[in-house]
Design a protein that fits this description.
CATH architecture of the largest domain: 3-Layer(aba) Sandwich
CATH class of the largest domain: Alpha Beta
CATH topology of the largest domain: Oxidized Rhodanese, domain 1
Strand content: 5-15%
Shape: globular
Number of domains: 2
Distance between the termini: 13 Å
Oligomer: single chain
Order of helices and strands: EHEHEEHEHEHHEHEHEHEH
Number of helices: 10
Number of strands: 10
CATH superfamily of the largest domain: Rhodanese-like domain
Largest sheet: 5 strands, parallel
Strand order of the largest sheet: 1-8-7-9-10
Length: 312
């Protein structure tokens, strides 16, 4: 499988794909983010506009702030939003820190303590321009644990603050949500190993270019990328304002990677955070997407002869 670096600003300029090819393969009509609460279809809408999020909150949605408890140094705050980090629901020790906790009972207790309930929408906020995709990871997490009404806000917390939303109703605790895992959106190390080289699967590395090339800035045991992986830094799909690029522009980038609706798209990063965000985006656009949560932390800790990484 050919290795490819892609940056949205020079997909066409580099000659990776012609304008005519992009136009011919781009979907005739990409879905757009639900603009108001009435338009939200939770089964397919994993990302909503700030206005839709505001209306969902007004109707009683629980609001989770994926930036976590240490908000003193963080810009902006919505009163009564519940702080949480991806680590709160993940395994504590390397190299498995990207994986969710094994215990459904423990996860259920944690989520109920936050106020998560089965039939109540959950709106997740983050800082897309400055963050690591934590809001997407949390949406992926709740969806994978069986909560089908969890959504991410396009533009995150800053976009909601621009609408004048500065407070929400305090949550009712405990919630009544009970974990019922859905394996549709994740993949394990051994399963991914079996997918290597398969034409029905496309593997996407959403880290920065220097990580893809072999740098190990976050304690990885080995550097490099999975054989056959395409490269796309996830932030090349986000504008400076933190909002997603227009859907048609995103689709063009995806086409240049070879992403099509008939493929299974598996993404990874360091610990399944950035790739969780990317999985949310792809699923919202109607692709078949899976997040490898173990990602490079786990893969690089495994035997190199069985779990190879490339640096070219």
């Amino acid at each position: 499988m050919h290795l490819l670096f892609v940056n949205r600003r020079h997909v066409l300029a580099m000659g990776l794909v012609s304008a005519a090819t992009v136009a011919s393969f781009a979907p005739a009509q990409a879905r757009t983010t639900a603009v108001n609460a009435a338009a939200v279809k939770f089964e397919s809408d994993w990302i909503v506009s700030p206005q839709a999020a505001s209306e969902l909150i007004a109707a009683g949605a629980l609001v989770l702030d994926a930036r976590g408890k240490d908000v003193k140094s963080k810009q902006g705050l919505i009163a009564n939003a519940i702080p949480i980090t991806w680590q709160d629901l993940s395994q504590p020790d390397m190299p498995l820190k990207g994986h969710l906790l094994d215990s459904d009972i423990q996860l259920t207790q944690k989520l109920q303590a936050l106020g998560v309930s089965k039939n109540q929408a959950v709106v997740v906020l983050g800082d897309p321009a400055n963050g690591w995709g934590e809001d997407g990871r949390l949406v992926w997490t709740l969806r994978s644990l069986g909560h089908s009404k969890t959504v991410m806000v396009d533009g995150g917390l800053p976009a909601l603050l621009q609408l004048g939303k500065t407070a929400v109703q305090p949550p009712k605790t405990p919630g009544d949500f009970v974990v019922a895992r859905n394996r549709q959106f994740d993949i394990r190390k051994e399963e991914l190993k079996d997918r290597l080289g398969k034409t029905s699967t496309l593997i996407v590395d959403v880290r920065e270019a220097h990580e893809f090339a072999g740098k190990t800035p976050y304690g990885e045991a080995r550097g490099g990328h999975l054989p056959g992986a395409k490269h796309l830094w996830f932030k090349d799909l986000i504008g400076k304002d933190g909002k997603l690029l227009p859907r048609t522009e995103i689709e063009k980038v995806l086409v240049s990677l070879g992403v099509t609706k008939d493929l299974e798209v598996i993404s990874y990063c360091t610990a399944g955070i950035r790739s969780g965000w990317f999985t949310v985006l792809l699923t919202d656009l109607g692709y078949t997407a899976k997040n490898y949560t173990g990602s490079i932390w786990e893969w690089s800790a495994a035997p190199a002869d069985q779990y190879p990484l490339l640096k070219n």
